[in-house]
């Protein structure tokens, strides 16, 4: 994608919505430095422009029966005058929300000039259907981000750029198989204790009244990972005695990180599966070193790019230097062997009887054989000619191992048109699907939808709950005591937060606009710095309602006045000799997750770490 960026800039107009002048924003044709958390105001104002200017997709959305545009600012529209095509509720959306949401209304809220809102919205619609609104976590992972995300994606529906060339594509799936888990083949191996345990509530409190965690329209089917710390600490819904963590570092990576330190300290027994020591490892009773994905293990990786899905194989290429095991296959198998030795054979029986080599029918006799057979089972649709489902034709397992990759046929444009997995089978501006999901969650807790949304920290009432609409940003901290909005971002070097123990990360940190090598700077707009007497390089302390961190000030015009910005990633105290100044004791830099309180977008369960979730104050030391 990075290699193609220059071509994109040559062929398309790029508008970046970001409170910070990022590397991407610096290259874009338009930079819209939105006030953190006010993305929804910008999105609904753009929708207002598209409709009032008559620029919506007639093919996708539909049109007025007589061809006369009745979308006029401030005026309601008779629903019977509009004939919709592949969408549901565009006129309802207008009447309930959009008719008052002009660019002039949005400007003082989101901080973007009305003329720029009009220009970008018009440009988007005129480029349709070869355009897209590419939504990032910044708009969604906010306390009230569910509806901001809904509004941003709804713009794609308005201009008809879904499943089109140059537009956004629906998810392309690689048809890999699953081991027979939770199916008829698995049931004989479930004992009474296990069957009862599967019905227990989850420790992350998904499905509680305040955590709908909706997934596929079902209450509690999503996850609320960061809430598990509170569940452990409060023993709600029960007291956890044993926990295993793998490929996670929740004591560092979650907001409100101190909760995780306390929760992990409370556990009577905790095992951590990891490739390298981290903060979470510090609390482990047993550490189980994991094999590296790239060279030491059996496995596969499904992914997608452009119009193709693909699956690449992971296979052992080198002999491990240390005593490591594959996290998702070998370790469960070895645990199953030990359980059998203690009289509990169900798990090992299942592994050996139901996870056989699909070529030979042989049962696994070791953990590494089990890892191999599971990989073959789950990828059989790609390499077995008898199970061919399209895409590359491979001659068998050996051919798959040699080539290392299966690629699908190209995804056909407009494949999902009229076939969406919604209640109406249409693209929903007025979501009957969301209405049903919220109703079921409310019914489960013997209340109504208005009460559910209020509990989830939303302001919407009535039918607004079912449409993309503006929600004012939610922030922790009183504006008088904490006058600045804190906004974080990711480094282009972060590698999902796993690169901080590499010298190159620190040496080249200056490639992030406004950052500095071998430092963890705190960005402040020069106008704000002048008022506070802060100069470039001064030592400063930033304090939120829950914690403080220190760093060196960087006066950066690329952030909005009234905001303080800092890159996520540093502040490790136990991630290695480079990531930490003193391993296990002294962090290098400051951790944003100590500064930010734990909060959530409750409809999905995601952690609310964007949108200026907290206010801060800053002082010179």
Level-2 CATH architecture of the largest domain? 3-Layer(aba) Sandwich
- What is the count of DSSP helices, taking H or I runs of 4+ residues? 22
At the first level of CATH, the class of the largest domain is Alpha Beta
Q: Please state the structural category.
A: alpha/beta
Question: Which strands sit side by side, in order, in the main sheet?
Answer: 13-17-14-16-15-22
CATH fold annotation of the largest domain: Rossmann fold
Mean pLDDT: 96
User: Into how many domains do the coordinates divide?
Assistant: 3
E-strand count: 22
Largest sheet: 6 strands, mixed, barrel
Using the alpha-carbon principal axes, give the shape.
globular
The value of Rg in angstroms is 26 Å
List keywords for this structure.
621 residues, alpha/beta, Rossmann fold, Barwin-like endoglucanases, six-stranded mixed beta barrel, three-stranded parallel beta sheet, 22 helices, 22 strands, 15% strand
Question: What report would you give on this structure?
Answer:
The protein has 621 residues and is of the alpha/beta class. 29% of the residues lie in helices and 15% in strands. The protein has three domains: 33-169 and 418-466, 3-Layer(aba) Sandwich (Dimethylsulfoxide Reductase, domain 2), CATH 3.40.228.10; 187-404, 3-Layer(aba) Sandwich (Rossmann fold), CATH 3.40.50; 484-620, Barwin-like endoglucanases (Beta Barrel), CATH 2.40.40. It contains 22 helices and 22 strands. It has a six-stranded mixed β-barrel. It has a three-stranded parallel sheet with strand order 6-7-8, with no helix packed on it. A three-stranded antiparallel sheet has the order 9-10-11.
């Amino acid at each position: 994608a990075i290699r193609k960026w220059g071509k994109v800039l040559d062929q398309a107009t790029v508008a970046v919505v970001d409170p910070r002048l990022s590397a991407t924003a610096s290259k874009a044709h338009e930079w819209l430095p939105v006030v953190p958390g006010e993305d929804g105001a910008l999105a609904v104002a753009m929708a207002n422009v598209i409709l009032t200017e008559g620029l919506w997709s007639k093919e996708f959305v539909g049109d007025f029966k007589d061809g006369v545009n009745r979308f006029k600012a401030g005026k309601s529209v008779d629903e019977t005058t509009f004939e919709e095509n592949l969408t549901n509720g565009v006129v309802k959306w207008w009447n309930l929300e959009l008719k008052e949401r002009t660019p002039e209304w949005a400007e003082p809220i989101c901080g973007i000039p009305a003329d720029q809102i009009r220009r970008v919205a018009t440009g988007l619609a005129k480029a349709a259907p070869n355009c897209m609104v590419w939504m990032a976590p910044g708009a969604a992972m906010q306390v009230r981000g569910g509806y901001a995300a809904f509004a941003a994606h709804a713009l794609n529906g308005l201009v008809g750029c879904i499943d089109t060339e140059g537009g956004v594509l629906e998810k392309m799936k690689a048809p890999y198989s699953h081991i027979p888990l939770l199916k008829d083949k698995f049931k004989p191996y479930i004992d009474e204790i296990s069957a009862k345990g599967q019905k227990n509530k989850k420790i992350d409190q998904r499905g509680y009244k305040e955590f709908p965690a909706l997934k596929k329209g079902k209450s509690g089917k999503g996850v609320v990972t960061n809430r598990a710390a509170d569940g452990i600490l409060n023993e709600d819904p029960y007291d956890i005695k044993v926990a295993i963590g793998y490929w996670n570092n929740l004591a560092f990576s979650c907001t409100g990180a101190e909760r995780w330190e306390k929760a992990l300290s409370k556990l009577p027994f905790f095992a951590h599966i990891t490739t390298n020591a981290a903060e979470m490892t510090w609390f482990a009773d047993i550490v189980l070193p994991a094999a590296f994905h790239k060279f030491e293990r059996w496995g596969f990786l499904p992914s997608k790019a452009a119009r193709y899905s693909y699956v690449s194989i992971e296979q052992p290429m080198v002999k491990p230097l240390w005593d490591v095991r594959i996290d998702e296959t070998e370790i469960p198998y070895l645990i199953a062997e030990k359980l059998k030795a203690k009289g509990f054979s169900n798990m090992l029986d299942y592994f050996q009887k139901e996870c056989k080599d699909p070529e030979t029918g042989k049962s696994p006799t070791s953990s590494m054989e089990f890892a191999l057979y599971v990989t073959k089972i789950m990828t059989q649709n790609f390499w077995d000619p008898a199970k061919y489902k399209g895409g590359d034709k491979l001659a068998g397992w050996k051919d798959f191992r040699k080539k290392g990759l299966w690629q699908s046929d190209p995804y056909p444009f407009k494949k999902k048109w009229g076939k969406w997995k919604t209640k109406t089978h249409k693209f929903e501006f007025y979501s009957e699907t969301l209405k049903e999901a919220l109703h079921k969650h409310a019914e489960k807790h013997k209340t109504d939808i208005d009460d559910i949304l209020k509990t989830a920290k939303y302001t919407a009432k009535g039918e607004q709950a079912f449409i993309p609409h503006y929600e004012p940003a939610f922030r922790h901290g009183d504006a008088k005591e904490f006058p600045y909005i804190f906004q974080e971002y990711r480094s282009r070097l972060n590698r999902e937060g796993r690169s901080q123990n590499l010298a190159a990360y620190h040496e080249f940190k200056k490639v992030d606009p406004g950052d500095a090598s071998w430092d963890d700077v705190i960005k402040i707009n020069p106008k704000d710095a002048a008022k506070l007497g802060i100069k470039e390089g001064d030592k400063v302390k930033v304090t939120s309602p829950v914690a403080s961190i220190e760093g060196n000030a960087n006066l950066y015009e690329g952030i909005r006045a009234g905001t303080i910005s800092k890159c996520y990633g540093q502040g490790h105290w136990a991630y290695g000799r480079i990531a930490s100044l003193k391993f296990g004791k002294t962090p290098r830099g400051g951790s944003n997750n100590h500064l930010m309180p734990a909060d959530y977008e409750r409809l999905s369960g995601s952690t609310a770490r964007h949108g200026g979730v907290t206010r801060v104050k800053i002082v010179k030391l």
